[in-house]
Amino acid sequence: MLQSKSFVKKTKQGRVVKVVREHYLRDDIYCGSVICKVCDTSSARLSSAASAILIIDTNVVLHQIDLLENPAINNVVVLSVVLEEVRNKNMAVYNRIKALCTNAMKNFFVFSNEHHRDTYVKEMVGESPNDRNDRAIRVAAHWYQSHLGGSTQILLITNDRENKKKAIEEGLSAETVESYVRSLEQPNLLDLVVIPTSLDVVKEEFDDPRPSKRKVIYHEHKPMSEITSGLLHRIYHQGKLRVNRYNPFEGYVGSESIGDEIVIYGRVNMNRAFDGDIVAVELLPQDQWTEKSLIVVDDDEDEEDDVHLVPSSVDDAPSNANVAKAFAGSAPTVSSRPIGRVIGIIKRNWSSYCGSLEPMPLPASNGGVAHALFISKDRRIPKIRIQTRQIGNLVDKRIIVAVDSWDCSSKYPFGHYVRTIGKIGDRETESEVVLIENDINSRPFSTQVLACLPPLPWSLSSDDLANPHREDLRHLRVFSVDPPGCKDIDDALHCTPFANGNFEVGVHIADVTNFVHPGTPLDEEAAQRGTSVYLVEKRIDMLPKPLTEDICSLRSDVERLAFSVIWEMTPNAEIISTRYTKSIIKSCAALSYVEAQARMDDSRMIDPLTTDLRNLNTLAKIMRQRRIERGALTLASAEVKFQIDTETHDPLDIGMYQIREANQMIEEFMLAGNVSVAEKILRHFPLCSLLRRHPIPTKEMLEPLLCTAAAVGLDLDISSSKTLADSLDHAVGDDPYFNKLIRILATRCMTQAVYFSSGDLTPAEFHHYGLAAPLYTHFTSPIRRYADVIVHRLLAAALEIAKLPPIFLDGPRLTEIADNLNYRHRNAQMASRASVELHTLIYFRNRPMDTEARIVKMKANGFIVFVPKFGIEGPVYLTSKGDKGTDWTVDEAHQRVTNTSTNVSYCALQTVKIHLEVVEPQPHRPKLELTLINM
Known about the structure:
It is found in: Nucleus. Its cofactor is Mg(2+). This protein is an alpha+beta fold. Strands 20, 21, 22, 23, 26 and 27 form a 6-stranded mixed β-sheet that branches. A hairpin with a 5-residue loop joins β26 and β27.
């Protein structure tokens, strides 16, 4: 049966067009219940054991997803109209409800009510889309009731007052979320229920501890219509709020409309915005643009100190002198940056947070319900008020809490308990916290994903050998060089001298796409994960281990499938020709960086493999020098290496990671392979190639580097990457570590490199600043990065080995993929750093010690130091809590802080001696305290 739907829409060019869509209706869509006597039950998911079949509306999915994921909630019908509406409103929740519908352990069934002849409803004249969808849900509930003939109860779950009323009037059974959960007689389950806040929802059945009449603490958010108008007339400014990691009372909003960062001081001016929210900001009057010079806030400061009643007008807004008594130090100074306050939230960034409870001094009431404040491990997140029926079991646990609402009369946001992670301080628990905080999917791969893998043991097939598009390169002396203990080996090299003095050099990359096919559950899972995540003690794989450590890993002495880039190079590392081919290789050695370096350094070793290594190293040095001459930056980072106990997984030793020539050699050829592939795919697919760019840092971003350099007498030229690279080369002093420290500071001022679709930007924007390369992509690590999987498919299509998957013709979808890859890549980096911080705490827990550190940033009440020996950075305080700090003055121009009483001073990059010790100034918030040792 065919239905036609027509509507009008406005194009980007401003033309109004009529769109007609055909909507096919069927009568053979199954209900999904095992007790049905009409439908095919072979793929049924709704159990006969449950007392009722639940039909949920859109808002239940959007707001109660934590509850729906609990094992107690089962036998649920998710209608297609609900699924589509959730997809349009919240992709994160959409992905979670989809996962529930495919989870074999959960009885969730998707019913295509929009395509069933008996459940499809047309929109009525004057009916809003929301009312039409509510009616469609009730029609579907009626159909289930009639279709199953009363053999089981059909229960509509909704918190919408009007929807519930109409359902009951129409003869349906309907309940609110709260009343249904109460009927399950599992009191602890009520902790998961989100308390409704809107006036048009039913909430009388739930105990809402929030007071109805209190003094206003925060400004009411402006309505979106007023925000939109204000943004248009530049009265308001839009941007993402970033909260200072050292000072949760200070935030920044990058605004394109004024081309600068707007500083937000204090919780009142943040006005219930969370880190990562897209906000609308109003500038304060210019006479209030004062700031406390580069303030550090101590960890035991309480946000109670920053909560004041909202002023009656902007003119009465609290000055910085009233913002948190933690702002000890020098007097307020006139700010060169604009200062403002949040007047509205455009897009929330609320998520689930990890932390622990601080019980409130209130007796348990209402049937054992206790009120508590949740303290997130992330200091940028304010305390969250929750109510729970299991306070005794949670006080010593790391738990997850989700935010539900934040009323302007409430000091804290209101949320609900989600689940318990484990005992506070336990290494496994704290490692899981790192993963959750950074949205890392560490769940085991599903049976559907694992079903996509070839059976083990895997070996080359006759079809692989007979494939005309795959070249047999098993005769070549191929080898890999990786970190010690590496099992997911996805790149290897060969270097063969020609009679004419040139070299054939090949980069061979694991042919992951031979096993990961577009559109399969394996591919979708890899696309969602985006990248493997490397923690100190473990690896979270993007792909299942049979692929990463066996089938695709280019281990020694086994035949493997590869995708190869092969160059002919002169002895001067000039590329004469390039070819690309799918291949078969057999690696002769899997070396570690240390082993490869030892071979190259030992003049007694003259075997063919060592000769290949030396030839490659010679070429790599020339290539590296040529890149530097073009303007590529040689930066530095504080990479830390742990020695881990094989049984307890606790750190035994900690130190800086050593970079050898062997590391740089491999890096050089991987860079060259990525550049060659970028050129090839862009030539064939100029509008849909996945590339990687590194935007030029702004002068404002480089200001901290310039300021510190000037303070020590350095003049850095930042007019181009070439001039900056030359300046960094000349930044030398008597101290051998001085240059590396300057390069570390430069690294921190850089923008993030990002993935993008070539159709979204102009060629001038493709440039990679750090590599000084006009084109770049990622091709060399498909085992651990999904970006490389996409690029492999593009290269195969460019070589006409395979067809280009249809997704590459969908520009918006490609942009979504690139955005997700950037998000996942950044989260993986943050998780790795957090894992290092966790294991640093574990290492120093029983090892207090004195060591040397370098001052890298001056503050009003102290400075930030970097400890080269351990790669640690943190604040050193010159004033204690409550100390007004009047004896210390900061000279920002010369990056110096001086005690006016004793005339003792400290300056940027100075070496100081500090004491390292783990302390716990707040319950459940251990930190590594760095204390200055007076010399």
